[in-house]
Amino acid sequence: MENNPSLYHQEIFGNSFITLFPWMTIDNNTTDKFITALTLDILNPHPYMIAKVQISYQNGSKGNLTEMTYDIKPYTHHKLKMNELMMTKFHDPYDIGIYKSDYDSRIMITSTIPISVTQGCFANNKIGDSFTGILRNHHSSVK
User: Fold this and answer.
1) Which domain of life is it from (predicted)?
2) Are 86 and 57 in contact (CB under 8 A)?
3) 108 Cβ contact list (under 8 Å, min separation 6)
């Protein structure tokens, strides 16, 4: 039985995705520890081929590009837990209510064969949401 990529729902399966680290606002007057859990669920729908998936992002704390490669087995999904220290931290440097971030919060995901990416984001491991990753060639000017 041949796997036919043309039958995949085009908004869910693809080879290139872009998403963001979640954001949080830093209040300089408090010491609250706000922990956000970010996961990426990568689904390989192919019955025979391994998906070689590369995830890359700018490491805000180190200022360099971080790249990780994973082999996702056929007909399986792999859950990746991202570093909670990488959440996009907005702060008000001038104390006037205009918040900014000091680094690029994009996460780029590429694969050798079509995959699906679902991102989960939970604040303090209690409240959150999951959503499908956005195909990069459909919704972004980043190539």
Assistant:
1) Eukaryota
2) yes
3) 16, 17, 18, 55, 56, 57, 136, 142
Residue 110 sits in which domain range?
Answer: 12-139
User: For 15-59, how does the pLDDT look when each residue is reduced to its tens digit (9 = 90+)?
Assistant: 998 887 766 555 555 555 666 778 899 999 999 999 999 999 887
- Token pair recorded at residue 8: 């995949």
The dihedral formed by the CA atoms of 44, 45, 49 and 54, expressed in degrees to the nearest 10: -20
CATH number of the domain bearing residue 28: 2.60.290
pTM equals 0.72
Per-residue pLDDT tens over the stretch 35-46: 677 889 999 999
- Whether 23 is covered by a domain: the verdict is yes
Please answer whether residues 131 and 118 qualify as being in contact, where contact means their C-beta atoms are separated by less than 8 angstroms. Answer: yes
Residues counted in the chain:
143
Contact 57, 21 (CB under 8 A): yes
pLDDT of 62-82, one tens digit each? 667 889 999 999 999 999 987
Instruction: Work out the number of other CB atoms within 10 angstroms of the CB of residue 16.
Output: 17
